[in-house]
Amino acid sequence: MRRYAAVMLLVLCGASTAHAQMGFGAKGGVVFATTSDESADTTYRTGFAAGAFVEWPLGTRLAVQPEALFVQKGSKLDSSLVDSSFRVDYLEVPVLVKYNLTASPGAFFVYGGPAVAFKLKARSFADFGGSTIVDDVSDDVESVEWSLVAGGGKEFKRFFVEGRYVHGMKNIDKLGSDAKTRTIAALAGLRF
Question: Residue-wise pLDDT tens for the chain (192 aa)?
């Protein structure tokens, strides 16, 4: 896992110095995540995401934007008997194609592209009458996840806000159920 983080850090740092017009920045925000597991009645759990990005302009409106984000995913079990949740922390690396809808500053933008996520840790939590049981379930969760990302937002000079949907394409459950992640994120960021 450290190997993947080191490679992404080198790519992001090296890319930011390779071309004068390239931009970089940081972003973070709230994440609402669940899984598509049909064997359980799951709902969204709240987490957060934070990380960095580099933007390579391909013209006045088009750019390529790789990112490296720490993202909390998982789901909650919808049950009246027990309060339980499944939580997976990822290093997610989207490579997005971004399009500004206008050429002026303060533009609205849309983007999309693939993402690969590397599992950092996975845990299950169950609350029974005031006591919480925590289990490490890392061995039951795939170490790599593939997704498709789509979103959009608005720029305010160096500051921006955005919303995105991340649709997991790979089953992350090694035990046999069909569990693919579904994530909605509201993010804000700053260009440097």
Answer: 555 545 454 444 544 444 448 999 999 999 999 998 766 678 899 999 999 999 999 988 999 999 999 999 999 886 667 778 889 999 999 999 999 998 776 789 999 999 999 999 999 998 877 788 899 999 999 999 999 999 999 999 899 999 999 999 999 999 878 889 999 999 999 999
Burial of 39 (0-12, 13-18, 19+ CB in 10 A): exposed
Distance CA 182, CA 142 (A): 16
- Strand, coil or helix: 20: coil
Query: Whole-prediction pTM value?
Result: 0.84
Determine contact, residues 27/62, Cβ cutoff 8 Å: no
Residue 71: Cβ-neighbour burial (10 angstroms; 0-12, 13-18, 19+)? buried
Judge residue 104's burial from the number of C-beta atoms within 10 Å of its C-beta, 0-12 exposed, 13-18 middle, 19 or more buried: exposed
